Amino acid sequence: MRRIVFCLFFLSLVPVAGAAQAQSDPPGISGVATINTDDAVVETKNVDVLAGQADEALLREEYQRAASLFIGACLKTSLRYCDRAQSIIDAESEISFSPDLQIILYHKACLYGRDVACQALKAFVARADAACVAGDAVACVKAGTSRVLGKGIGNDPAGGAQDFARACALGHRDACLRYAGFLADGWHVARDPSAAKHAFQASCAETHAQNCALAGLHYASGHVGVQDRALAKAFFDQGCAYGDPFACEERAHLDD
Question: 31-75 pLDDT, tens per residue?
């Protein structure tokens, strides 16, 4: 198995735009995600070969491998395989893929006019909404990501921000980082540097050392509308203490 990194057109964990950002562009619109997959997904460029290998894996009941191969075909612009990947993920509860990946598969298929995927996305978000109201933070993140993407359910970034806020309140550290980006940029919410600072602080923890580093990067670079080197150092120090090497490097650069 190898790990591949692929670009996703969805809200990332890193808000990158400043306060003057256009209202049509969500903070951190480009992101990356990783999946564990077979070497063939990385090395094979022929989508039909990938699909054939996926069908063979299905016959052997190797569902995780089959889904990975169909995802590889999907991400190589062969949209008919997006639904097949998602159908396997939906049917096999033991398969583990990130919520963001599930959402991007639905959106990718819906974006190119596959009505069944659009309807599946609406049902997916409805289930996520219900679970979010019941206190499921991950479900809130799923709903929020879908609303920011918008295709198939209607673009609602302000609603997505509220989903992230709720997830943050429920203790989802990465949701706090996303919500901080909305508040810092004033993207479809009132710009609130104080609330953004609290959300960045809530995102930073020993189990989420990278979030500390990312928060520090925002304050060091001024992406949150104001450059605050002291606060950047505090976040880098915390991330470094929690074991994030990037935080340690950036902290040292501030002293150069």
Answer: 323 333 343 343 445 888 888 999 999 999 999 899 888 888 887
Tokens of 206: 């020993």
CA 102 – CA 35 distance, rounded (Å):
12
Distance CA 198, CA 183 (A): 10
Alpha carbon distance 57, 55 (integer Å): 5
| The two three-digit tokens of residue 96, written as one number | 């583990």
Q: How many CA atoms lie within 13 A of 58 on its CB side?
A: 17
Closest Cα to residue 58, out of 30, 34, 81?
81
Give me the DSSP letters along 73-116.
HHHTT-THHHHHHHHHHHH-TT----HHHHHHHHHHHHHTT-HH
Q: What angle do CA 11, 110, 117 make, to 5 degrees?
A: 110
pLDDT in tens, 113-130: 777 778 878 888 999 999
What type of residue is 157? P
- Distance (Å, whole) CA 97 – CA 85: 11
Instruction: Count CB-CB contacts under 10 A for residue 43.
Output: 9
User: Residues 107, 108, 113, CA angle at the centre, nearest 5°?
Assistant: 90
**C-alpha count within 13 angstroms, C-beta hemisphere, residue 150:** 13
Low-confidence ranges of the chain (pLDDT < 70): 1-45, 77-78, 99-100, 112, 151-152, 223-225, 256
pTM: 0.70
